[in-house]
Each structure stands twice: as C-alpha cells, then as structure tokens.
Write a sequence for this structure.
C-alpha cells in the first residue's frame, strides 16, 4: 500500500510465499523483486535459487533480520542485489528499489558488519560506514573483480580488509604503521585498479568475494 503511493513505483503483484513469488515473476516479469527471507512453504533463498535456475534475471532485494546470517550468505552467493533489514522505513525501501532498478546494489547498515564478523571470526562489534547504493563503473564489470583482488599487493589486500571492517584511514594507518596520506594513496590506486568509485563499493565487494 505504501509503495503504491510512490509516483515512480508500480506494484504489479504480491505473493505470500516463495513458490508464489516464482510464479509471479514468470507471469509479470517485474524489474525488482522485494523478497522476504522467512516465508511459509518456501523460503526466500530457495526462491532465488529456483528463479536463477530458470534463467530469470529479475533484480532482487532481500528483507532480512540480524538473525538470518546464513540466509544472507546464501543470498549473496546467488546474486541478490539488495539487503535491507525488516525495520527499514518505507522511504528507505522505496529508495532501495529505485537504486536496484537503476543497476546499483544496496546493503543496509549492519548487514555487512555481521556478515564480515561471522566470516572472519571477529568477536567484537565493528562499525561500518553507513551503507549506500553503489554501481560498478563501465570499466570494471563484476566478473573482473575477483581478478582485480588477486592482482592487489599484500599491503593493498591488508588495507581493503580493514576498509571492509569499517576502519577509517586514520585507524588503518595506526594498524599498519603507515601515514594517513600513504593509506589514502593506496586506496586511490586500489579503486583505480578495480574501477570502483568509493570505499563502500570496495568493502561490500570484498565481503561478497570472501563468501564465494
């Protein structure tokens, strides 16, 4: 009801579970699928898996909670473009739909933090920069990112890993015993190598790559 009030968003169908979602995507071919992780009969991850197996290219935003880590990991591996917490406001959901429809990806504040912490075994909470939409530049399609990361030097990889933990340039410089200017120069080179726009892109894609 709330999304239908947005002048540039049309809700073409609503389903009650993953099985219905699959059929509705086939029937209506929407640009974006807003998908709950936990649903009766078929969960969201299984729905994504079956949609991809059918060759459906619909862009997917997952609605999740802090307790759904495993589902988030699987959704990432299957190529979902957005990850929002269920307490997201209608305005945030609408903004995410617009971003994903336009080719960007969205990760809610806290989601990347938990994914990285579980993957890395980090026990203390980390504070990532606020999540923001991002899109890859034409010079760096997603299939080149793994190759890009492989080409980084060990020092550059150390810096990217710390960026993914949410550390500022100053914190990275203190951790690696570098000057803040040196860290900034390294980041500029890393973003250039990968064709990325900013550190948020870098952090999210590093985390995603660590899950593959």
């Amino acid at each position: 009801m709330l999304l239908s009030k947005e002048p540039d968003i049309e809700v073409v169908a609503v389903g009650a579970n993953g099985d219905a979602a699959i059929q509705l995507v086939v029937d209506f071919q929407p640009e974006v699928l807003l998908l709950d992780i936990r649903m009766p009969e078929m969960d969201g991850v299984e729905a994504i898996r079956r949609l991809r197996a059918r060759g459906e290219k619909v862009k997917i935003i997952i609605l999740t909670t802090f307790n759904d880590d495993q589902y988030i990991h699987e959704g990432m591996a299957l190529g979902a473009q957005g990850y929002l917490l269920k307490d997201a406001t209608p305005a945030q959901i609408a903004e995410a739909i617009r971003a994903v429809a336009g080719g960007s990806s969205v990760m809610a504040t806290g989601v990347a933090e938990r994914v990285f912490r579980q993957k890395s075994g980090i026990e203390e909470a980390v504070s990532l920069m606020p999540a923001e939409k991002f899109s890859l530049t034409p010079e760096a399609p997603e299939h080149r990112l793994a190759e890009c990361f492989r080409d980084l030097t060990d020092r550059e990889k150390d810096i990217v890993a710390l960026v993914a933990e949410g550390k500022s340039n100053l914190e990275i410089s203190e951790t690696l015993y570098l000057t803040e200017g040196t860290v900034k120069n390294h980041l500029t080179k890393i973003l250039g190598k990968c064709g990325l726009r900013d550190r948020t892109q870098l952090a999210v894609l590093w985390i995603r790559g660590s899950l593959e």
Summary: Residues 173 and 182 are 8 Å apart (CA to CA). Residues 119-143 have pLDDT under 50 and may be disordered.
